[in-house]
């Protein structure tokens, strides 16, 4: 299976979780997904009142400089750990 196929399978697998991961785990998963699919965050930081958007932006921004390939590998590993924990 190619890296992209493994990544897509991991992205699908997280949808099967029956229990809710922590907010930090969700944010980490989101950040890795965005870094893997888009690359470095170049969007403007959301305003002060958009707490959810601001948190997502900050977590994604922490991934800056990580290659999309490395982000995909990290996402696959992290998603597998979450699925095992929350299945």
Automatic annotation (TrEMBL):
Residue ranges constituting the ACB domain according to the UniProt record: 3-87
Source domain of life: Eukaryota
Pfam families (UniProt xref): ACBP (PF00887)
Xref: InterPro entries: Acyl-CoA-binding_prot_CS (IPR022408), Acyl-CoA-binding_protein (IPR000582), Acyl-CoA-binding_sf (IPR035984), FERM/acyl-CoA-bd_prot_sf (IPR014352)
Leader peptide range in chain numbering: none
Biological process (GO), any one: lipid storage
PROSITE patterns, A to Z: ACB_1, ACB_2
Name of the protein in question: ACB domain-containing protein
